[in-house]
Amino acid sequence: MLNCKDTTRLLSQQQDQSLSLRRRMALRFHLMMCSGCRNYNKQIDFIHKACRRFSGKE
Amino acid sequence: MSLHTACYPVPGIPIPGWLGYTVGYFSGPFSVMREPLQSVANQGAEDAFSEAAIAALRHDMLRFARLQLREEAAAEDAVQEALAAAYVARDGFAGRSQLKTWVFSILRNKIIDILRQRTRHPTQSLTADDGSDMEVEQLFNEKGMWHRQKRPTDWGDPETELDNTQFWRIFELCLDELAEQPARVFSMREFLGFETAEICAELGISESNCWVILHRARSRLRLCLEKEWFAQG
Ligand SMILES: [Zn+2]
């Protein structure tokens, strides 16, 4: 069972490469129960979008 | 068009004030630009090259270049060269957004060139993380779960902030707070679009190290935005 620290690490890694099915399942399970990590995920997603805008790639 | 040939004034083409290296930005004799474009440019291209449009574009480009090169003079040179290339090819642009996309892609390539050169001939090593990750670490308890008071909050519909100039000031400030090495890795990934495999090859670090660095950079950045922007209401 993942803790929040490992979850944030995997959520970040997921922005850069695809994760194994097992890891994706573990992530999904954790996210279902944890609003903090759900918010973390949305936040880094937003940061990615902001970076695209910042580099002129709207 | 080659980036390198486009960097210099082309004989026979009048060079407007905003391209002059001696002209300080925002203060140049922009009126020079008003001279008629040589061929029959469409209205879109003229709008795209209006004084206000160029000033705004230049501002965004400088901000982008400065952040990654961390050196004012190098950033200004890169921006000038990208704008000069765009000016030479000015008749080809249908409008402002097309110009922006194009000129930023030139700028990104310039920055990549400069960063590569620096990696090959490092004048000094990058300052790695200074252990300031303590702040991120302290968000978790001993079991690695969020402390109740420190959980990431709901930012609502943050994309509306992307049109807010004040937001971008904070965004830049937060990026500036990253140490040099995480900032470099982060911008290669998120601004220049490198794959992590390419980043480690360029910087001579392992891929897992690259993920750790990116994760730290994102965590610091989101914490900074949360504190400095989203918690401020
Ligand atoms: Zn969690």
UniProtKB/TrEMBL annotation, chain A:
Per its UniProt record, what Pfam families does this chain match?
A: zf-HC2 (PF13490)
Give all residue intervals belonging to the Putative zinc-finger domain: 4-38
The source's superkingdom equals Bacteria
Q: What is this protein called?
A: Putative zinc finger protein
Organism lineage reads as: Bacteria, Pseudomonadati, Pseudomonadota, Gammaproteobacteria, Thiohalomonadales
UniProtKB/TrEMBL annotation, chain B:
InterPro entries noted in UniProt:
RNA_pol_sigma-24-rel, RNA_pol_sigma-70-like, RNA_pol_sigma-70_dom, RNA_pol_sigma70_r2, RNA_pol_sigma70_r4_t2, RNA_pol_sigma_r2, RNA_pol_sigma_r3/r4-like, WH-like_DNA-bd_sf
Q: Tell me the GO BP annotations in alphabetical order.
A: DNA-templated transcription initiation
The answer to whether the entry has keyword Nucleotide-binding is: no
Any GO MF annotation of the entry: sigma factor activity
Q: Which UniProt keywords apply?
A: DNA-binding, Sigma factor, Transcription, Transcription regulation
Domain (RNA polymerase sigma-70 region) ranges: 55-120
Task: Specify one Pfam family.
Answer: Sigma70_r4_2
Segments forming domain RNA polymerase sigma factor 70 region 4 type: 170-221
The organism's superkingdom is given as Bacteria
Similarity remark: Belongs to the sigma-70 factor family. ECF subfamily.
**The protein's name:** RNA polymerase sigma-70 factor (ECF subfamily)
Q: The organism's lineage?
A: Bacteria, Pseudomonadati, Pseudomonadota, Gammaproteobacteria, Thiohalomonadales
